[in-house]
From TrEMBL:
CDD domains: DHPS
Described function: Catalyzes the condensation of para-aminobenzoate (pABA) with 6-hydroxymethyl-7,8-dihydropterin diphosphate (DHPt-PP) to form 7,8-dihydropteroate (H2Pte), the immediate precursor of folate derivatives.
Residues in Pterin-binding domain copies: 19-278
Cofactor(s) in the UniProt record: Mg(2+)
EC category: transferase
PROSITE patterns associated with the record: DHPS_1, DHPS_2, PTERIN_BINDING
Reaction equation(s) it catalyzes: (7,8-dihydropterin-6-yl)methyl diphosphate + 4-aminobenzoate = 7,8-dihydropteroate + diphosphate
Protein name: Dihydropteroate synthase
InterPro entries xrefs: DHP_synth-like, DHP_synth_dom, Dihydropteroate_synth-like_sf, Pterin-binding_dom
């Protein structure tokens, strides 16, 4: 369906010259890693601005927790949580994404200035979502999703997780495009932690290059503080560190993602990930300079050999 374009990111957002960093603003009392901390409009706006000051390129504002087992929030409450925060952050000059599964929230957030809709259900949770996004002509994140958080862990069953996530995402992307969303505005996300075990998440991180190559769309990776990192970091007793102690591990995944050409990483603490993606970019540029130098040297040697040959013939 899709073709690789010259652009690194989706049409409709600034073009960053490296993997972008999306900072998370959860306006929720119960998100798994930072629930309750920014559950107040003013605090949430301040948090968003702090994330930008710390190196975030854009901020993702959400009013519904999607942690495993979470119940859904009421629509009116989600609107009340999200829209004022989006409006205020946009007024302060931030590039804002809205993290929602509800078309009404997406629509109100876009009206308030949100530049991107991030739907963890890829439009499956609310049939009105895809038409809203198609009409608004904003970039749209399609994440791999198998069902609501209340019972998603029971759906974490795969033979070949990378192959199945690829096929299910492709099917979803085709449906979204058939329903009128501009393919140039799509972003894909493997949905780490959503109906996935720690082993599945690790396999997906190992498979990022394949996902990017085969889906040929900008890729968003959201590993921040997730369970699989807790599992990797667990001590000998098997006890994982608390979510807030997983930011260095998150930055490691940000570096890996940037290295594999991800368009963006979604993180709670931006500083370490912002540094990580900048280092990856600098190393990449040094490699390009090195390659250009080798080509110039090869041309110089070939030129000298040619000149010597010409001399020998005289
Ligand atoms: N994960 C969470 C929330 N929103 N959006 C995208 N695109 N991808 C994700 O993996 C994702 C997301 C859950 O994490 P949080 O509760 O810490 O925000």
């Amino acid at each position: 369906m899709s073709t690789l374009r010259g652009r690194h990111g989706p049409v409709g957002l600034p073009e960053w010259n490296r993997c972008a960093v999306m900072g998370v603003v959860n306006v929720t009392p119960d998100s798994f890693s930072d629930g309750g901390r920014w559950f107040d409009s003013e605090l949430a706006v301040k948090r968003g601005l702090d994330l930008i000051a710390g190196g975030a390129d854009l901020v993702d504002v959400g009013g519904e927790s999607t942690r495993p087992g979470a119940a859904r929030v009421d629509e009116g409450e989600e609107l009340r949580r999200v829209v004022p925060v989006v409006r205020e952050l946009v007024a302060e000059g931030a590039v804002v994404s809205v993290d929602t599964m509800r078309a009404s929230v997406a629509e109100a957030a876009v009206e308030a200035g949100a530049a991107l809709v991030n739907d963890v259900s890829g439009g499956l949770a609310d049939p009105a979502m895809v038409p809203v996004v198609a009409t608004a002509r904003v970039p749209f994140v399609v994440m791999h999703w198998r069902g609501f958080s209340a019972d998603m862990n029971s759906r974490a069953v795969y033979g070949d997780v990378v192959g199945e996530v690829l096929a299910e995402l492709q099917q979803r992307l085709d449906a979204v495009v058939a329903a009128g969303v501009d393919p140039e505005r799509l972003v894909v996300d493997p949905g780490l932690g959503f109906a996935k075990s720690a082993e599945h998440d690790l396999a997906l991180v190992a498979g990022l290059a394949r996902l990017r190559r085969e889906l040929a769309l900008p890729l968003l990776v959201a590993a921040s503080r997730k369970r699989f990192l807790g599992r990797v970091l667990a001590g000998p007793g098997g006890e994982p560190p608390p979510a807030r102690e997983r930011d260095a591990a998150t930055a490691a995944v940000s570096a890996l993602s940037a290295r594999e050409g991800a368009w963006a990483v979604r993180v709670h603490e931006v500083r370490a990930s912002a540094d990580a993606v900048r280092v990856v970019q600098a190393v990449h540029e040094a490699g390009e300079v090195g390659k250009a130098g080798q080509v110039a040297e090869a041309a110089r040697v070939a030129g000298a050999a040619g000149a010597a040959g010409a001399e020998g013939g005289m």
